Automatic annotation (TrEMBL):
Keyword Mitochondrion recorded: yes
Low complexity compositional bias, start-end: 25-53
The UniProt record lists the keyword S-adenosyl-L-methionine: yes
Enzyme nomenclature, EC number: 2.1.1.201
UniProt keyword annotations, A-Z: Membrane, Methyltransferase, Mitochondrion, Mitochondrion inner membrane, S-adenosyl-L-methionine, Transferase, Ubiquinone biosynthesis
Enzyme class name: transferase
Gene behind the chain: COQ5
Protein name (record): 2-methoxy-6-polyprenyl-1,4-benzoquinol methylase, mitochondrial
Localization: Mitochondrion inner membrane
Length: 354
């Protein structure tokens, strides 16, 4: 039986990844029930409840990091936008080159481990139920397309919809073109593209018409409603966010009780020192060079490897997920290829923490 970790068990006080220890210290975590925030729909301030800790509310002037540099949260958003606007057209080709195609295997495994379209807890003999999947930082669509294929084709469940959300219109534009070129009409009809900052899903910009059915027509802000999502995925996106706790808080808000947060992200290879040394040499030596030769953009790929280096360890990130109110099973993560990437999952509890 896996053990469950929850915020109620976390009385260890200050903890966090190395960076956030320096920049955004955590305080005691035991009372963070974040699911009840109900923001004003026309407010410029992201939603927060009386228990939302300050560090989980975006603050444009708060220090964070951009690769190895310290910048403000607002500046990071601008600079990350610059990176992904610059790499959008070459993004898919570069992914294959930099990872020797491994990113495809990791993504396949991530999606099959979530088995979209199949809900074993659905009452009755048929385990297929309607599902709304929100793919955050969905970029050019790799995860969303796999989700739809597994749900519609493998699990024969056409009642699964996917919303691809990303802050960057250039990445979404490549994704929309790919969807038109590669997906059957039925899957195209089940996909919605929205532009949004993962740290504030109360203000999104739908790019496809008609807008996704889950949007609350009574608000002009296209706020993704509380408890409207069955499965929240984010792949290779979260390390780029300016305020990760804010994004986790939003994930918790939009998920239904029992809904799943699932993240695929680069991680740490520290448990295998020799492999780690080879991997670091490859990352810092070859990837910026490949970026320069293939995409004519060394700086963006230098940022990419630095951002991987600065991302929290598997354990620290697991603790951030727990701190946002999710429960995790077992150790809370699964290493892929020795920890080059890792999958983290958390469930929004069906019952609010006391
Ligand atoms: C490395 S790409 C990953 C794309 C896709 N998920 C995949 O696995 O191929 C990272 C994506 O994160 C997006 N992103 C960065 N900051 C974001 C934010 N604050 N909110 C939403 N998306 C963001 C970028 O625009 C980019 O498309």
């Amino acid at each position: 039986m896996p053990t469950l970790r929850s915020s109620a068990r976390l009385s260890r006080g200050q903890f966090q990844c190395q960076l956030q220890k320096r920049i955004r210290p955590f305080s005691s975590t035991s009372t963070r029930a974040l699911s009840s925030s109900s923001p004003s729909s026309n407010s410029n301030t992201p939603p927060r409840s009386s228990t939302t800790p300050d560090y989980a509310t975006p603050d444009p002037s708060r220090p964070t990091h951009f690769g190895f540099e310290t910048v403000t949260e607002a500046e990071k958003i601008q600079r990350v936008a610059g990176v992904f606007t610059s790499v959008a057209e070459s993004y898919d080709r570069m992914n294959d080159l930099m990872s020797f195609g491994w990113h495809r295997i990791w993504k396949d495994h991530f999606v099959s481990s979530l088995n979209p379209g199949f809900s074993p807890l659905t009452p009755g003999p048929d385990p297929r139920a309607p599902q709304h999947i929100l793919d955050i930082a969905g970029g050019t669509g790799d995860i969303a397309f796999r989700m739809l294929h597994t749900a519609h084709v493998v699990n024969a469940n056409p009642d699964v919809r996917v919303t691809i959300s990303d802050i960057n219109p250039a990445m979404l534009s490549v994704g929309r073109q790919r969807a038109q070129d590669q997906l059957p009409a039925s899957q195209q009809a089940a996909i919605t593209f929205v532009e949004a900052n993962a740290e504030d899903l109360t203000r999104t910009k739908p790019l496809t018409s008609p807008p996704a059915p889950f949007f609350d027509a009574s608000t002009a802000t296209n706020r993704i409603p509380d408890a409207s999502v069955d499965l929240y995925t984010v792949a290779f996106g979260i390390r780029n966010f300016s305020n990760i706790p804010a994004a986790l808080r939003e994930a918790h808000r939009v998920l239904k009780p029992g809904g799943i947060f699932a993240c695929l992200e680069f991680s740490k290879v520290d448990k295998h020192p020799l492999f780690n040394a080879v991997y670091k040499r490859w990352s810092f030596g070859a990837i910026p060079l490949i970026g320069q030769l293939v995409a004519g953009d060394r700086d963006s790929y230098q940022y990419l490897v630095e951002s991987i280096e600065r991302f929290p360890s598997q354990e620290d990130f697991r603790d951030m997920i727990v701190d946002a109110g999710f429960v995790v099973g077992g150790q809370g993560y699964e290493d892929l290829t020795g920890g080059i990437a890792a999958i983290h999952k958390g469930m929004k509890p069906r019952v609010k923490a006391a």
